Amino acid sequence: MTLDPHKFFSILERRVGLTPEDKELLKSQADWGLEIAPKMAEYFYDYLERDPEMSVILHDGSGRIHRLRETFIQWFHEMFTGMDNWGDVYAERRWKIGLIHVRIGIGPQHVVPAMATVIYEVGKRLTNDGKSADLKDALGRICMIDLAFIEQAYIEVSSSAVLKETGWSEGLFKRLISTGAKAM
Ligand code: HEM
Fold first, then answer.
1. 161 CB less than 6 Å from ligand 1?
2. Where does the Globin-sensor domain lie (predicted)?
3. Does the beta carbon of 99 lie inside 6 Å of ligand 1?
């Protein structure tokens, strides 16, 4: 179960429906994205800090919260620039972000509502700044792709760890999951 980030990006791009027009639109608004990124980071971390479990993770005494504000701004801006036109560099970066969250123990229950917060706050700002509905849709699509990377990293890492530890085949593992789900 080793994921090829580039292939995974292509699959998601098709499933989510991110079009070349979306990419052009995002790139044309990259300066606006960078301008609003610090404010979005503020909303984002205020939201995380209101949750007791996530607040503990953020304040681990190593200055995480400060590093994170900077990396959030960078991440947010990259959604507009696409880094290398949403190619290998973009996909690898999204995969790495996913793996970092898995290592820290941040799962779907944390990440999905966090991304919903980003989408909600950007949506409000788009309206205030008179931006188009097309831009809102394009941003929603790229946010979903980024979210899918973090979610998939969680599945891939968990599955690989079980397979490595037990020596089970992938087929057996899938059958066990299916049986377990039926029994729930
Ligand atoms: C929309 C979802 C999220 C996005 C886009 C996001 C983005 C990022 C990025 C870009 C990094 C830096 C990765 C690197 O160092 O290369 C990061 C790391 C991290 N994120 Fe998130 N994040 C999300 C959700 C969360 C949530 C829900 C938490 C919960 C507390 C969280 C906590 C952290 C922590 C603790 C780190 C590592 C910081 C460090 O020690 O340097 N993130 N995140």
1. no
2. 15-157
3. no
Q: Do 136 and 123 touch, CB atoms closer than 8 A?
A: yes
CA dihedral for 98, 154, 141, 85, sign (positive or negative) = positive
pTM attached to this predicted model = 0.94
Closest ligand 1 atom to 53 CA:
30
Structural domain span for residue 147 = 5-183
Total domains, the chain:
1
The tens-digit pLDDT sequence of the chain (184 residues) is: 579 999 999 999 999 999 999 999 999 999 999 999 999 999 999 999 999 999 999 998 888 888 899 999 999 999 999 999 999 999 999 999 999 999 999 989 999 999 999 999 999 999 999 999 999 999 999 999 999 999 999 988 888 888 888 999 989 988 988 898 888 8
Among 155, 144, 50, CA closest to 102: 155
Q: Which two tokens stand for residue 46?
A: 């205020």
